[in-house]
Amino acid sequence: MSYITPDQLAKRPGARELAQVATPEHEAVVDSELMEATLTGADRSTWSIEEIEVADEALGTIEDAMADAKSVIDGFLARRGYLPLNPVPPIVTTWARAILRYMLHKDRIGDSKDDPIVRDYNDAMRLLQLTADGKFSLGAEDTSAPAGTGSPDWSSPERQFTRETMSDF
Q1: How far apart are CA 151 and CA 115, in angstroms?
Q2: What is the DSSP letter of 71?
Q3: What number of other Cβ atoms are within 10 A of residue 135's Cβ?
Q4: What is the pLDDT along the chain (169 residues), one digit of tens a residue?
Q5: I need a labelling partner for 61 at 20 to 30 A (CA). Which of 38, 77, 96, 168 fits?
Q6: Which of 33, 27, 15, 25 has its CA nearest to residue 53?
């Protein structure tokens, strides 16, 4: 089970962005309407067979990135025993989207401190690490309480001075 679906990706980041980064380098960028139809499973009969094949290649690239993002997330969540996730918490879908976009934009050039794709990826990785360390919860569906919650445990040595031991004084 994937943490994000092509249909969710069609909504955000959107078919246009995905077509631009996932189309094979030797091909013209897939039309955004065709990419949206490919992501959502809509009718593609108005496009040529060649255009549909290129869109399917782009979808394959996206699905590979989806699998890679899932593997990264699983690596962190397995440390806390969260797997398998059913249902998938919304925060995990957000992380999958951020990691997938970062992977698809691998050839992006620019200043990473102002880049929202890099920022979202770094945030996802930081929160995944905090989750693996037990310092961040997956939300209301999280059945594993983070370390350090609950009532404190008390332990002390047996009392030295009691009513009975002090009765002679």
Answers
A1: 43
A2: H
A3: 12
A4: 789 999 999 999 999 999 999 999 999 999 999 999 999 999 999 999 999 999 999 999 999 999 999 999 999 999 988 888 888 999 999 999 999 999 999 887 766 778 899 999 999 999 999 999 989 988 765 666 555 555 666 677 777 777 877 777 6
A5: 77
A6: 27
Closest residue by Cα to residue 33 from 53, 21, 22, 18: 18
**Amino acid identity of 161?**
F
Sign of CA pseudo-dihedral 66, 2, 97, 38? positive
Burial class (CB in 10 A: 0-12, 13-18, 19+), 3: buried
**67 and 2 in contact (C-beta within 8 Å)?**
yes
CA distance 85 to 52: 34
Six-digit token string for 14: 């959107």
Within the chain, residue ranges assigned H as helices are 6-9, 15-22, 32-40, 49-77, 90-104, 116-132
Q: Which two tokens stand for residue 159?
A: 């009392």
Two tokens at 112? Answer: 């990473």
